[in-house]
Amino acid sequence: MPIKRLQPSALFQRALNGRVLYSHVVVAEGQSLIFVSGQLARDGSGNIVGPRDMRRQIQQVGENLRAALEAAGAGLADLVKTTTFVTDIDEFFRHVDIRHDILGVSLPASTTVEVRRLSHPDLMVEIEAIAMRT
Questions:
Q1: Which of 50, 35, 20 is nearest to 127 (CA)?
Q2: Of the four, 9, 40, 49, 124, which is 20 to 30 A from 56 by CA?
Q3: Are the C-beta atoms of residues 72 and 25 closer than 8 Å to each other?
Q4: Number of C-alpha atoms within 13 angstroms, CB side, residue 64?
């Protein structure tokens, strides 16, 4: 089964010591499944968008998910599963309208988990996703 790994130019490419740490998007062509790594509230240059602002971070993560899926020839309507990690679940649920605006188009199966911390103290939300290209 051919596998394509994509690094959309609209998304920050995380590297450590000159080595890319993960693929933003993995497309398993044989099954038409698309696996999107956890997306954070970083712009294309790696800057944190909306430090400590859950609402703005959910918006940015949605934009990053959209860009990742578009790079694989899919869209938000193709999502089948998301896993969301948040540092403050009560704050996250104050902004369900934004999440619904982004993901409501597909209503994927979903899991939300509160975690102590993400990869930077200013980051509050991370979403990884699985989509199926139709």
A1: 35
A2: 9
A3: yes
A4: 31
